[in-house]
Write a structure and sequence with these properties.
single chain, 4-stranded antiparallel beta sheet, alpha+beta, elongated, two-stranded parallel sheet
């Protein structure tokens, strides 16, 4: 009898320990009733992490626009206004000297240069390509983050349902123990040989333990509800509840085969797209770095004008005047920067980043299929466990009912009640956990495959 009591207490402790880690915080029930899709939709709308991802996409788009802008002409203007010595006469005869001050006047000057790139050996085009692929990388990161948030919401949602089922189970066991105690007290008063005072003490002690676990189960339920609140970004004073009343198995638990999931992941998994686009972006940056070995061809234009009222104008083309003139010109240009090791070091850096991403790609190709297989096998295991545990807890319930009936009429020992309730509590909790595991295996499969949220 003492062994049965200790075993039942440990089993109920295990039930609550299994429920508690799935949960996090509390909120009273109210008029806002949300289904699973509603919770996911709200979480995706309010998530600060997705806000960061959107900002990253905008940053990548701005970098692309910057790269594109290098295709167009760049104009630089410099304007000057200041004092200058007067100058009279012309380039042949003048009473003034350049090394003497002959009164002060002012001058105004403006110089404008225009450079239109013609050919840069890939410096511009490759950086445009890298920026374009970078945008797709950030979009894939956003999709990955959305899938992570969806998986977290499902974990909290199903965890709340599991916590409520375990809470109801603890309550049910407590009620059965209460009835058994009342009957044991009656039989003890009648002097029955099937019960003694120790049985009453054990029932009283175990009933106290059940009350303790009932409080812990209520706390776990509250924590699970609050976890959803936090994930959805609801205010602290918002009252809500989930729309699903019970944790029940799906009507149709047949799914696709493993090969279908593996093929689907190649098309849908955001990480695959990140790596594909990232490799192309890195390859473009390597080419852009190598392009720095070569010159830039451009079309250049120049316009300069200056005026000073206190200086006579000089028209001799061999004697330029920096303070009284109007010059203009256009020419083809070549700009070539030659260094000793700087460019090669930059190329090596970009190549190293590319090689690093190749290793990451190899890792993903090996581990993503493993992740899918794990979730697939967990789904198969959960499917079989649901049916097995349903039969087991049903038979355990019949055993508990029979044991209680026999005890009521005085032909069965109290030990049978302890043993049957222990078996029933264990099998019933395993049944609900099997359902939870099945639903989470589907959620993990959706995540592993890269299924977009709210597509079902």
């Amino acid at each position: 009898m003492r062994y049965c009591f200790r075993t039942m207490a440990s089993q109920l402790t295990l039930l609550l320990l299994l429920a508690s880690p799935l949960c996090a915080a509390e909120a009273p029930r109210g008029t806002l009733v949300l289904g699973l899709d509603d919770c996911i939709r709200r979480a995706l709308t309010s998530s600060p992490e997705l806000g960061e991802s959107r900002a990253d996409i905008e940053l990548a788009e701005a970098k692309l626009n910057e790269a594109k802008a290098h295709r167009y002409p760049q104009i630089e203007f410099l304007g000057l206004l200041g004092p200058i010595s007067k100058a009279r006469g012309n380039q042949v005869t003048s009473s003034d000297r350049i090394d003497h001050l002959h009164g002060v006047t002012i001058f105004a000057r403006g110089d404008a240069t225009l450079v239109q790139p013609l050919y840069t050996f890939g410096k511009i085009s490759e950086r445009m390509s890298a920026a374009t692929h970078g945008i797709e990388v950030d979009r894939a990161k956003k999709a990955q983050k959305a899938n992570e948030i969806t998986l977290k919401v499902k974990e909290y949602y199903y965890g709340l349902l599991l916590a409520r089922e375990l809470k109801a189970l603890v309550t049910e066991v407590g009620e059965l123990l209460g009835k058994a105690r009342e009957k044991a007290r009656t039989l003890l008063d009648k002097g029955s040989d099937n019960v003694d005072a120790l049985d009453i003490y054990k029932l009283d002690a175990f009933s106290g333990t059940v009350r303790k676990y009932t409080e812990e189960a209520q706390k776990g339920e509250s924590l699970a509800l609050e976890a959803l609140r936090a994930q959805m970004g609801l205010p602290a004073d918002a009252v809500f509840d989930i729309a699903t009343p019970r944790l029940t198995p799906d009507e149709n638990m047949t799914g696709a085969d493993l090969s279908s999931y593996l093929e689907a992941a190649k098309l849908k998994r955001p990480e695959y797209k990140q790596l594909k686009e990232g490799l192309q972006a890195r390859a473009a940056l390597v080419k852009a770095a190598k392009a720095d070995y070569y010159p830039d061809l451009f079309l250049g234009g120049y316009l300069s004008g200056a005026y000073s009222p206190g200086r006579d104008r000089v028209t001799n083309p061999w004697v330029p005047d920096e303070f009284n003139h109007l010059w203009a010109g256009i020419a083809l240009g070549l700009k070539w920067k030659i260094d000793f090791g700087i460019t090669s070091a930059k190329v090596a850096q970009e190549q190293a980043q590319y090689n690093r991403l190749i290793s990451t790609n190899d890792y993903a190709n090996a581990n993503i299929p493993l992740q899918i297989r794990k979730a697939y096998l967990e789904r198969q295991e959960a499917e079989k466990s649901i049916a097995a545990n349903r039969d087991a807890y049903s038979n355990a319930k019949k055993w508990a009912v029979a044991a209680s009936a026999n005890f009521d009429i005085g032909i069965g020992p109290a030990k049978e009640i302890f043993d049957s309730l222990q078996s029933y509590a264990t099998m019933r909790s395993d049944y609900f956990r099997s359902i939870y595991n099945y639903k989470m295996s589907l959620a993990n499969l959706d995540y592993a495959v890269g299924e977009a949220p709210l597509v079902k």
